[in-house]
Amino acid sequence: MPELILTKDLDVPDYHRLAGYRSRGGYGALKKALDEMTPATVGAEVKKASLRGRGGAGFPAGTKWGFIPAQTEKPKYLCVNADEGEPGTFKDKVIMERAPHMLIEGIILSCWAVGIHHAYIYIRGEFVKARKILQAAVDECYAEGILGPKVMGKEFCLDVTVHAGAGAYICGEETGLIESLEGKPGKPRIKPPFPALVGLFGCSTVVNNVETLAFVPHIIERGADWFLKIGSERNPGTRLFGVSGCVVKPGVFELPMGTTLREIIYTHAGGLPEGRTLKGVIPGGVSAPILTPDEIDTKADFDSLAAKKSMAGSGGLIVIDDSVCMVRLLARIARFFAHESCGQCTPCREGTDWAFKVVSRIERGEGQPGDVDKLASIATSFAGITICVLADAAAGPILSFVQKYREEFDLHVTEKRCPLENKAPSRPGP
Amino acid sequence: MSGESNEIRFSQKAKDRLAWYLTRYPTRQAALLPALRLAQEEFGHLTHPVMDYVAGQLELPPVTVYEAATFYTMYHKKPVGEHCVYVCTNVTCFLKGADQLLEYLSGKLGIRPGQATADGKITLFSVECLGNCDKAPTVQIDDDYHDCVTTESADRLLEKLR
Ligand SMILES: Cc1cc2nc3c(=O)[nH]c(=O)nc-3n(C[C@H](O)[C@H](O)[C@H](O)COP(=O)(O)O)c2cc1C
Ligand code: FES
After folding, report:
1. CA-based nearest distance B115→chain A, Å
2. Is B118 on the interface with A (CB under 8 A)?
3. Which of A173, B76, B123, B158 is deepest in the core (most CB within 10 A)?
């Protein structure tokens, strides 16, 4: 059995409460840091561990923290990205509902390392249950002196505020999140300046994903060298893989980075239902370009999936079997991006909508000759030229679906029907 | 309009909440999203007078409040039923039959997504990924998630709302 880091103790009774978390050594890393380390050595340890961001881009957290100027006149902030909006992603919720104190301990350590005195946890509005559990955990910390004017009795003051979003995928993008926290529509900002210099309320800001921060206490407690031994080269540690779709046992699985997609799907998620064969897998949330069955021996880490022209993204695998019409599936993905484009960049606002219209008419059997190429050229035309990468995220699935399942798209146009007998998604329920 | 807006007042509880929110941010505007959520809890949906009231509370131009309120999907700008039923129709739920489930609920309630039943009890919505894909199809009813919903379990859930 591979070593579990984040999920090892989830079944401990009351682990979501302070007492339960403490019963398994919780807040030990924080105590160790405050007693024996300095903010700089905490930052150095996380940097040495090459902890890569689990929110999507895989950027090393320690390096990101290093961009924050040490001396600033203004306050600095941490924004915890708990928006979890990428379709196919449902892993941060597990941490927030079942190990909220692990997240809080990670937040405190990170803030101490960077010199931050206020952290905002931006949690998607729909996660009411997770928000309540998280808020209760924060309240416990204030009551016990783990948060507030003197963290664990030391000369370090830290506030944590749980802030609910209100339904908008784009608020998961870090500058959209910052705008939203400021009480505005979540329209991403032009970068540079990066949030490290001009972020929340015009101040230096770190934005990190929930899972990324939850690793920090473990790295501090057990050391970077231990962390570096787990996972694959340049992709250390474990990761919470979320597997959903056409598998027998969907769920969240903590596995070393670099576990192959095949192992995740067949060994951990129970493989496909009897009589079904694999048609494709979206390896990191819907933004990740799709991979075909002959590509699933790829390691599910940031670099290996990038080498396959896809991405590890949020770690959410969506498994697709042979009963699924790829045109129809792409139409659904395209609808999502068209709906979620914030609208400030014309290529994205118009392009995602246009792509959705074209793929929908192909799907309905109303495609015109040339429509499949048109679809690909629309996607090419809006990628890479907008303020944020939502447009690129929308283009990736379109281009990869058309390239890898071209025949199915062409048949929809030439025969004006779906080549699959069962056009509807396979299961009328679980 | 002015007669209507006179009646709009936060309860003491909501006022206390808002006062607390205002202590958590360096700007008043940052409390806007929480304030709109409070307003929706208090008044059901966000009418112009309600949004103007929130603007007054936060000392913001009304247009700033309208902009935010219209950007986010969880704010209701139109009246909604006593209960809101949100069916996820994004990718994984779609693979697990969410379209048929939505169709079923739509037929059973006699309304299209976005509409409310005639008795004002239930509004039905089709929504994007709820972050619960391992338990697809997911249906959210008011604040609560329901996992792996079938037509049978949906029947039972609706029964409870009656
Ligand atoms: C359209 C879009 C949506 C995103 N949604 C999320 C999200 O829901 N959660 C998240 O952690 N990161 C999301 N990200 C990535 C963030 O912009 C950012 O890279 C991340 O929060 C940084 O944290 P990390 O370095 O710890 O991963 C999104 C990015 C884009 C472009
Ligand atoms: S696709 Fe429905 S919950 Fe994610």
Report:
1. 19
2. no
3. A173
Separation between Cα atoms, residue A248 and residue A273, nearest integer Å: 6
Contact residues for A281 (Cβ-Cβ < 8 A; gap 6+): A261, A265, A290, A291, A296, A317, A318, A319, A320
Tell me what the mean pLDDT of segment A195-206 comes to.
Answer: 98
Q: What is the pLDDT of residues A232-281, one digit of tens each?
A: 999 999 999 999 999 999 999 999 999 999 999 999 999 999 999 999 99
For A316, which residue in chain B has the nearest alpha carbon?
B133
Contact A37, A30 (CB under 8 A): no
What residues of chain B lie within 8 A of the CB of A94, using their CB?
none
The single-letter code of the amino acid at A219 is I
Q: Which residues of A touch B95 (CB under 8 A)?
A: 245-246, 318, 320, 324, 329, 425-427
Lowest mean pLDDT segment, chosen from A12-21, A31-40, A411-420: A411-420
Domains of chain A: residue spans and CATH: 18-229 (3.40.50.11540), 232-321 (3.10.20.600), 326-415 (1.20.1440.230)
Min Cα–Cα distance to chain B from A44, Å: 30
pLDDT at A383: 96
- Which residue bears the tokens 């984040």? A6
CA of B26: which chain A residue's CA is closest?
A201
Buried b / exposed e over B43-59, threshold 16 CB at 10 Å, is beebbebbbbbbbebbe
Task: Compute the radius of gyration of chain B from its Cα atoms.
Answer: 18
Instruction: Give dist(CA B66, CA A186) in Å, integer.
Output: 14
> How far is residue A236 from each of residues A103, A241, A300, B54, measured CA to CA in Å?
19, 15, 12, 48
- Whole-number mean pLDDT of chain A? 96
What is the Cα Rg of chain A in Å? 22
Region B83-101: mean pLDDT is: 97
B102-154 tens-digit pLDDT: 999 999 999 999 999 999 999 999 999 999 999 999 999 999 999 999 999 99
Query: Checking DSSP bridges between strand A316-321 and strand B83-88, what pairing results, if any?
Result: unpaired
Distance CA A344, CA B67 (A): 13
Q: Can you spell out the DSSP letters for A382-424?
A: HTT-SSSTHHHHHHHHHHHHHHHTHHHHHHHHHSSS-SSS--S
Q: Which residues of B touch A85 (CB under 8 A)?
A: 128-129, 131
User: Does this complex have an ipTM over 0.90?
Assistant: yes
pLDDT tens-digit profile of A74-127? 999 999 999 999 999 999 999 999 999 999 999 999 999 999 999 999 999 999
